[in-house]
Amino acid sequence: MLSKRVLIILLFFCGFWVSAQDFSPLSETATGLGSAVTQSHAMEDVFRDVYGTGSSKTRAGAVKKNVAVSVDAAYSQLSYTPTPAETSAAIKNYVTGSNVTGAAATRARQALERAGIGQLYRDMVAASGLRDGNVADAFTAYSVLGWMVANKAPEPSRAIVQGTRNKFALQLAANPSLSGSHAAAVGEELKILFVMLYAAWQDDKQKGNEQAYSDAINSSFSGQGLNMRTLRLTTAGFAFR
Fold first, then answer.
1. Is 167 exposed, middle or buried (0-12, 13-18, 19+ CB in 10 A)?
2. What's the angle, vertex CA 172, arms to CA 145 and CA 94, rounded to 5?
3. pLDDT, tens digit, for every residue of 8-37?
4. What distance in Å separates the CA atoms of residue 23 and residue 82, rounded to the nearest whole number?
5. Residue 182: which domain range?
6. Is 6 contained in some domain?
7. The three-state (H, E, C) secondary structure of 177-210, written as one string
8. Which of 110, 125, 146, 155 is nearest to 222 (CA)?
9. Which residue did the predictor score with more confidence, 22 or 222?
10. Which pLDDT belongs to residue 5?
11. pLDDT for 58-117, tens place per residue?
């Protein structure tokens, strides 16, 4: 599967997430791994902590407790400086979280290393105001993209993305473990999840499989406590329709 070449020139968002990229190596890798929502057990814990495992009717990304911290302080707590070693470790965790082993896993890791995940991520989110090196930004990028895929929705405005980021920053900062090296591990894996989700989405759109992929992504997020199809995006984050 990884040897199949599929050319995907991404002009879909006209510069919001990305202007033009060839994602064929990543779409091949997503196909080889079997899923673009593969994630480590540690990442699953982060999603469940924010989204919740109970009824999403009561969650919608609401801050779970009063956190005596400003958005700026929360954002600062979640910042880190990406390093090649941390990116490589995140790639290893991502591939390990799939059911791929042996030579196929090695090829997947090599493809992700060559892809330059960090630069792809920066190019894709720049116009939305999201930045590299922060868990809140990466969590927002992945969550907003998941909502777009699940609802087959157009791009949200920069103001909506920023407001959603601020809401997530407060939630994520309530987890004292999300700082330092752990913040870097989570942030780097989120960037991979975001890029791979996008690559697989575009591949399925081209192949006429968008609805099936949209359903699968909504099911995945619903399993983590957030049914994306019950939500809309606002400048204050997710809200019920």
1. buried
2. 55
3. 222 222 233 333 344 444 444 444 444 445
4. 22
5. 24-240
6. no
7. CCCHHHHHHHHHHHHHHHHHHHHHHHHHHHHCCH
8. 146
9. 222
10. 23
11. 444 444 444 557 999 999 999 999 999 999 998 888 888 777 778 877 887 888 888 888
pTM confidence score: 0.79
- The total domain count for the chain is 1
* Buried/exposed 185-206: b ≥16 CB within 10 Å, e otherwise: bbbbbbbbbbbbbbbbbbbbbe
Could you tell me if residue 144 is inside a domain? yes
Cβ contacts of 54 within 8 Å, gap of 6 or more = 225
Start-to-end CA distance of the chain, whole Å, equals: 40
Residue pLDDT, tens place only, 118-159: 988 998 999 899 999 999 999 999 999 999 999 999 999 999
| CA quadruple 227, 233, 239, 241: dihedral sign | negative
Q: Tokens in use for 84?
A: 């090649």
In a domain, 112, yes or no: yes
∠ CA 37-190-113, nearest 5°, is: 90
**What gap in Å lies between CA 62 and CA 205, rounded to an integer?**
32
